[in-house]
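Table 4 source record.
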Amino acid sequence: MEVKKKKSTAKKSSSTSGRIAVLDKMRKGPSVKKFANTDTKNKSSTGRPQTNLKGFGKFKPRPAAAAATGKETGRNKRKHDDDKQDDNDPSKRLKTEEMKKKDRKKFRRTFKNNFEKAAEMKQIWEKMRRRDVTKAEKEQYINQLFQLIRGSMEEFVFAHDTVRVVECCHQYSPEKCRQIVYDELKDHVVKMSQSKYAKFLVMKLLRYGTKPQRAELMSKFHGNVRKLIRHTEAAEVVEDMYNNYANAEQRTDLIQEFYGSTFSLFKDKNVKTLSDILEKQPDKVNTVLGGLSETLTPLADKNVVKHSIVHKVMLEFLQHSSGSVRSDMIEAVRETLMPVIHTPDGAKLAMMCVWHGSTKDRKVIVKSLKTFIKKISEEEHGHRMLMAIFDSVDDTRLVQKALLDELLKNISDISNNRYGRRVLLYLLAPRNSSYFHPDEVKLLALGDTNDQSKKDNNIRHKELLDYVSEPLLKLFIMNEIGHFVKDKSLSQLALAILIHVNADTTEALTLIAEMTAEDYFPAAADDAASEYHIIEHDSGHLFLKRLIKMDKEASEKERPVFCDILMETMPVGSLRSWVKSNRGCFLLVTLIESGLPHVSERVKNEIQQSACMKTLKKATGKGAEVLRKVLEA
């Protein structure tokens, strides 16, 4: 047993000594003999050779002392000491993440170019903007600003704050200083127009510049219009230039750039529209229209489609294109017509899309207008788009549900608007010369030649009129009759409702007759116009005259006749009081000449009473004179 214990102890000691030897070798590092490329000349501070390993560059092992003790020596130790020293330094700069947002913003600004100058500029600008600053002080501040920005304006115009200072300096400076600002920035206007902030300075240069300056600025954009019109910011500058400052020739130059690269570089004064090009160069029709299509189609999906210069070019394209080319353009813009219809060319463009669009295109266009009907009806130019839809869309059920329902919900507001009344009148009497100017009728007639509408115009009109007749008549009855009849514009709509609706108008005519049958007393000088009797009111007596003149036609069509209702409503002898009024005399003449014998006979019998004739002979008005002649005839 003892022998065995000695053997195990010997084995244990030998294994321990072996481990110690291995650890010593590891501490000493790899043997020099094991590496082929060993530089024995270069030795480290520990006396060990520096070894070059193929593919690994110079091998720099960790110092033995550091490896053994775990402490940093040499360069690492110095760096560690420096870090400790920085941590103890109270003036050490904080990390930006640890700063407050306001302090971080100020800290980052200090790295910008001309930071101190920009800060000084803004301080002066804030003083100058105050309302209590005198004219002399303002001039002094402007001179100080001008001295700061002169020679380095390009550095300030692309920042949101400093560009406002430059704008202010240009706006309030004398002409000489404005010229210096213009000379310094004129070569950068194309780049500035594409900036979110600098574009406003370009607009200021146009607004306050002289005519030669504006002309030179516009020439800087030549060759770049097609590119800039696709840019959201630059498109506003081009639109401002085209719409507010360019004359007819300069507008033509801007439009020509859409026709192709040839016209971008070489302007032709004889070419004013697309039709001029197609007439002079008919062999280039496909080339020009193809280039226009490539330029305009992407614009339909952008905000720039709202600009009038785009409307003008798109309208010309649709007017001269046909077939699949025109269909593709209509398909591209059919959902974005709302921002287009606010200009004359934009409204015509929308009408062209309605006229020449396919059934699917028309359906998409009509549905895209939902919730905007009141606004469109009150648009100066956009209301014509609704007229084009009433004229050409065969699916009247779609028009009724998508457009007319919303229109009738807002009928009270629409009827009080100048352009809204025109939409209602067009539903009642489309293209009637009594309500619409011949030029407008001619414009709307251009859609009659479209090859998409199949339904007869009269049938389409009747279906729409039947749908709106009852609501329009209720509008007239439910509102105060005097408000309609005694208003010049609304009286025209009221008369059209009574004449054209496909509904029973007896109730409405009775209300008018009751108001007319009220006792007449001459108005006092201090009475308001709304308090005048209907026969003496400016618009009221004209409304009655027109209504009476339409009675003969109404009797022939077996419609309710106003004169019959009036004679039944008015007490016997009440017409004699009308002789005291000049306008009342004219109304009596109209009743006598109405073409209805029983009405004419009753009026003559009441007036020819001796007392009434004495009053008529004493009257000196023109109406009394005409009435006397009619009675004597």
